[in-house]
Fold this sequence. Notes:
Layout: H1 2-28, E1 31-33, E2 45-48, E3 51-54, E4 57-60, E5 65-68, E6 73-76, E7 81-84, E8 87-90, E9 95-98, E10 101-104, E11 109-112, E12 115-118, E13 123-126, E14 129-132, E15 137-140, E16 143-146, E17 151-154, E18 157-160, E19 165-168, E20 171-174, E21 179-182, E22 185-188, E23 193-196, E24 199-202, E25 207-210, E26 213-216, E27 221-224, E28 229-230, E29 235-238, H2 251-254, E30 258-266, H3 275-280, E31 285-295, E32 300-303, H4 307-316, E33 320-326, H5 332-346, E34 355-358, H6 369-385, E35 390-395, H7 396-402, H8 405-408, E36 412-416, E37 430-437, E38 446-453, H9 455-461
Parallel strand pairs: 1-2, 2-5, 3-6, 4-7, 5-8, 6-9, 7-10, 8-11, 9-12, 10-13, 11-14, 12-15, 13-16, 14-17, 15-18, 16-19, 17-20, 18-21, 19-22, 20-23, 21-24, 22-25, 23-26, 24-27, 25-28, 26-29, 30-31, 31-33, 33-34, 34-35, 35-36, 36-37
Antiparallel strand pairs: 30-38, 31-32, 37-38
Helix pairs in contact: 5-6
Amino acid sequence: MKRIKTLFLTALCLCLFSVIFSVTASAERQVIEWDGKSEIVAGNTYIITDTVKLKKQVEIPDGAKLSVKDGGVLKIYSKGGLLVNGELAVAKGGKLTNSGLINVKKKADFNIYGSFQSSVSATLKVSGDMTVYNKGTAEISSTVLLYKSSNILIRGKTDFYKSSDVTLSGAIKTEEGSGLSLGGKFAITASGSVDVFGHLKVGTKSDVRISGVLTLEEVSSYTRFRVVHTTKNGRFLDYRPEDVYYDMTINILTEERKVLKKGIDVSYAQGDIDWKKVKDSGVEFAIIRAGRGRAGSANQMKEDDYFRQNIKGAQANGIDVGVYFYSYATSVSEAKEEARFLLDIIDGYKIQYPVILDMEEEFQSGIGTKKLTNMIEAFFEVLMEEKYFPMFYSYKSWLEENLDMTILDKYAIWLAQIGDEVTYDGGYYIWQYSFKGKVNGISTDVDLDYSYRDFPAILKKYGLNNL
C-alpha cells in the first residue's frame, strides 16, 4: 500500500510539473506588439504592425524574433541599430528602412519576404544567414560587410545601387527567377563567392572586382554594362551556352577581326534616295537619322521625315543599317526622354549597326564634363535595357574637350574627323571622313564613313538589336 501511495504521489508530481512547465513555456512564447523602446527578451516573438521609429541600439537575443508584419514599417535612424543574435524578419507587405546599423551575427537569421531598404548612411553587417524570398526586395545603397561565415540566399530581387560599397567574404547564391544587380563597388575577396542561377546585372556605375569566385550557371542570364575585373587568383566562371551571352560595350568588339566596310549616313537633307543605285555604287552600310530632340518654336521631339522611307529602301536593297538620334538634351532626364522617344521610332526594325547618340551642339559643350558624361550614360542605359548596342558620335575636338572619356571609353565611338587621316588618340569603330561625298543615287552631298568591324555578324552573334 505504501509503495502504491509513493507511485501515486510521484505520478501526481510529474503531472503537476508537466502542467507548470507547459504553462511556463506557453508564457515564454508570447507574441508581443513592439514599440521600439521596450527590451526584447529571449523566447518571445515581437511584431510590428504600425510604424516604429528606432533611434537607439537594440539587441534581438538568441531565441527571440522581431517581425515587421504586413502594413508595418520599421525605420532605423542614423543613431539606431539592431544587433541580431536571434531572427529579424520582414513579412510580405512589411517594410524595413535602415539608416543606421544592422549587424546579423553568426547563427542569426535575417529573412526578407517584404521590402528592405538600406540608405547611403547605413551599414549592414552579416555573419549569419540572410535570405531574400520570392516576393521580397532588397534595395541597398549602403556599406555592406558580408563576413566569411555569412550565407546570402536570393530568391527575389536584390539591387546594390551605385553608392553601395560591398565587401563579400562569404557566399551569395541566387536561385532561378531571381535578380541580382550590382551598381556600385562590389569586392569579392579570396574567400568570397557568388553563384548565379538567376539574372545578374552589372551596371554602368559599377566597380566589380573578383579575388574569389563568380559563377554564372548554365541556366543563368547576364547583362554587363561595365568591365568586371579579376585579380591574379580571381575566377569568373561562365557555364552558359555561348548563344545566350551578350554584352553592350566594346568588350564584344575588341577581339573580333577587323573588317573594312564602306558606308554613308543620311537624313531628310538627302531627300529621295535611289537605294538600288546606292547599293550598286559599292555602299555596304548606311546610318540613318531616326529623329531629333526638342527644338524649334514648338519645342517638340521629332521623327526624321525620311526615316521610314530610308530604312525600308536601304534594307530592301541589301544595305545594312544603323540609326542615329540628334540630341538637344541639357539634363539627364531629357537624355532619357530622348532615348525612349528613339526606341518608339525604331521599334520593330532589325538594325544591323549600332544605335547611335549624336551630340555636338555648342550650347551642350557648356553643360560641364560630369553632367554631359552622365547624360550620355543615362541615354545608353535606356537603350541597353532593351538590348540595343549603343554608340556615341561627335567630332574630335568635342570628344576631347567636353567628355570624361575614362568613363565613356567602354562604349563604341563613331568619330567625325574630316580628312585623310585620324589624329584622335582614343578608340573608334566608325570614322566619318567626308561631309561632301558623291554617291550615285543621291542628288546631294552625303557624308562618307568607314566601319572597322563586321557589326551585323557581331550583333547577331550576341542577340542584340532584334537580330
